[in-house]
Design goal:
Blueprint: H1 14-17, H2 22-33, H3 38-41, E1 46-51, H4 63-76, E2 80-85, H5 102-114, E3 120-125, H6 130-141, E4 145-149, E5 156-158, E6 161-163, H7 167-177, H8 183-190, E7 203-205, E8 208-210, H9 214-223, H10 243-257
Parallel strand pairs: 1-2, 1-3, 3-4
Antiparallel strand pairs: 5-6, 7-8
Helix pairs in contact: 4-10, 5-6
Length: 260
């Protein structure tokens, strides 16, 4: 909005499309070549769905279905959604460490947004390096953005004990080295501790809280109001079964927040 809080800024995407030159004409032709009719996008805010989905990243192995929910929300709110991929960072497979790639991913996000006719963006991702990269890139591109996280992986249990990812992996490695569990038990634990895609979860057992940096990162995003949470769904949309609800609500918000 302009400083008077009543006059909306013109849509950024119109710089691409509202031109009589050949470039504007071919851009509209390209969209129609993808199967979009003119009434599907003319005069509507273009909302990017920035998806860090990847089978190489355990934390981000499931946002592909969330993108469909966001898309439905954008259409419902009168926007025009376009999904695009960016880098995906996950500690399990990536060497030597994802921290070395965080800034590179943020540049990927920033330039993907900056170079394309996007009026706003919904960011999809999880993990403690992917999420900062998404936010840094969107902030540098200076477009309205909101974050949808994929949610935590399902809580694991082994022999009656609730497990916290990362922390208990290391704890039981020490138990193995000390000879208090066998190699067979260590392998049994391996098949139990990761029960689904998603970022690392928090585990509370007795007076102990065991967690990784992923869950605090997601909570921090709620605190600074860049992640859609409690307003969208019961329980803040943190349960995996509710993620689609939260994602769709973000799509509705992003599509309706842009001026026509």
């Amino acid at each position: 909005m302009h400083p008077d809080q009543t006059t909306p800024f013109p849509l950024r995407s119109r710089e691409w499309f509202d031109t009589p030159e050949l470039y504007g004409w071919t851009r509209l032709a390209a969209l129609q070549g993808q199967g979009f009719t003119r009434d599907a996008f003319e005069g509507k805010p273009v909302i990017g769905i920035c998806n860090s989905w990847s089978e190489l990243t355990h934390c981000n192995a499931h946002p592909r279905t969330l993108a469909d929910a966001v898309r439905r929300g954008v259409w419902q709110a009168g926007g025009f959604p376009l999904e695009f991929p960016v880098m995906s960072l996950g500690e399990f497979l990536m060497r030597p460490t994802t921290m070395l790639f965080r800034n590179l991913m943020s540049m990927d996000v920033e330039e993907s947004i900056r170079a394309n006719p996007l009026d706003g963006v919904v960011l999809l991702g999880g993990c403690d390096k992917t999420v900062p990269a998404l936010l840094m890139g969107a902030a540098s591109a200076n477009v309205p953005a909101i974050l949808v996280t994929g949610g935590p992986q399902l809580t694991a249990h082994w022999r009656g004990e609730q497990l916290g990812s990362c922390t208990d992996c290391r704890r039981y490695q020490m138990e193995l080295k000390a000879g208090r569990i066998t190699t067979a038990e260590w392998q049994e634990l391996q098949s139990e501790i990761v029960r689904s895609p998603g970022h690392s979860m928090i585990c509370c057992g007795g007076s102990t809280i065991r967690l990784s940096t992923c869950s605090p990162m997601m909570c921090s995003c709620c605190v600074i109001a860049v992640r859609w949470a409690a307003r969208a769904c019961p329980n803040g949309g943190c349960c995996p079964s509710l993620r689609g609800c939260s994602a769709r609500a973000c799509g509705i918000w992003s599509g309706s927040a842009m001026p026509a």
